[in-house]
Each structure stands twice: as C-alpha cells, then as structure tokens.
Predict the 3D structure of the following.
Amino acid sequence: MRLNTLKSKGRKVAKRVGRGPGSGCGSTCGRGHKGQRSRSGGGTLVGFEGGQMPLQRRLPKFGFNSPKARWSDEVRLSALAKLDAKEVDLQALKDAGLVSKRAKRAKIFLSGTIERAVVVKGVAVCKGARAALEAAGGRVED
C-alpha cells in the first residue's frame, strides 16, 4: 500500500433544500403538499396518538412507594449478636447505629446466628429469628 494509491471515501454533501427546481428539492423542499408536517413548527409531541388515549395512559401503573418504608428499618440477627446489650429495644438499636435515628419501627430478620440470650422488647421479629432467639435462651416481649 502506498500513500499515492489511497482513495478517500469522500463526504456526503448535505442536501440544500429550497434552492430552486434545479436542485431537485425546490418549491415544497421535500415536505410534500399541504398538511401539518409541511408547515414550519408542524408535528406533534412524543406519545401523541391523534387524540386517541396514549399508550402510557392506557397501561396500568406498576408498584407503589409505601409511606411506612420511610420510618421503618431492618436489623439482621448477626448484627444483633454483636450488640452488647442484654435487653434490646428501638432506642438501643438507634444508639448502636443499627437503625436510623428517624426510625419509628424496626424488624429483626433471620440472617446469621446468635449464641447468647437476648430479651427483645417492642421490636418486630420474624418467625425464624424468633425461633433462633428462643433457642439461644432469649425471649421476645411485645
């Protein structure tokens, strides 16, 4: 390959519309005759279906944001095992940094193990975590 034998592919020249009949794109400038799309500023918004109910309004909405989720937190059993308190309530969890300060409720889930007896007061506990706590000699008080 030599530099003097290279050929460029060139560049496509932009079509110049509205420059007379000799250009092949004069008078109507490729927009056809009359109608909304032939006008300047003509066209519709994205999603407009000519007055028919648009697809994004016909389909059902999925999911929702629970208002309770803002004030609720989760605690793993393995994190509870690292806590040095014998009695665990919401304030003890907040002080330890296991739940956020704004939390109004918390729930303990079975994730990990616990070897020592812990008394849980005023905190929700799932079925598996309750069994693990009671097997370790602890109890759950509501």
In short: The first helix runs from residue 55 to 58. The chain has a mean pLDDT of 92. DSSP finds four helices and six strands in the chain.
